[in-house]
Amino acid sequence: MLILTALMRFGTIVALGAAYCFSSPLSLNTALAGGIIGFSILAIARFTFTQLRGHEGIGWGDIELLTAIGTYVGPYGVWLTLLFGSFAGSIYGIGTLLHSSQQYTNIKLPFGLFLAGAGLIVFLWGEQILDIVLFVS
Which residues, 6 or more positions from 100, have their beta carbon under 8 angstroms from its beta carbon? Predict the structure, then answer.
């Protein structure tokens, strides 16, 4: 699955503009931090995987998607998005491996789909989830 780069960049700019111009739930600094953390996490993972395995494991679309999500949900939301997306992707991947006749090294999984779903969940209910996880009343 290809993630539209122009759409991700536009979404990031819209989120940062809203944080700067309007009274959005996130300040500009928080939105920037979320985007930078989202970019950094997957960019480092991509670089490390490429160095170790000799081929790409994460596409730039996934990195740009998490960057855009980070500008909407902030730094804590990025971590929740990555946690939920990775968990859902792992469940899907395990199921795919169990029902596949291919060698496990040749299967490509659509991580962006799981990041997008997790990002939506965190965007809508992230504060409540963080309150439960951090035991805050």
Answer: 107
The predicted structure's pLDDT at residue 123: 94
For 41, the domain range is 5-9+24-133
Residue type, 72: Y
In a domain, 78, yes or no: yes
Asked if residue 44 belongs to a domain, the reply is yes
Task: Report how far residue 17's alpha carbon sits from residue 61's, in angstroms, rounded to the nearest whole number.
Answer: 21
DSSP state at residue 99:
T
Q: Is residue 60 part of a domain?
A: yes
**What parts of the chain have a pLDDT lower than 70?**
1-3, 101-106, 136-137
pLDDT at residue number 97: 82
First to last CA, the chain: 40
Tell me how far apart the alpha carbons of residues 5 and 71 are, in angstroms, rounded to a whole number: 15
What's the domain count of the chain?
A: 1
- 102 lies in a domain? yes
For residue 3, what pLDDT is reported?
64
pLDDT of residue 75: 94
Judge whether 103 and 65 are in contact, CB under 8 Å: no
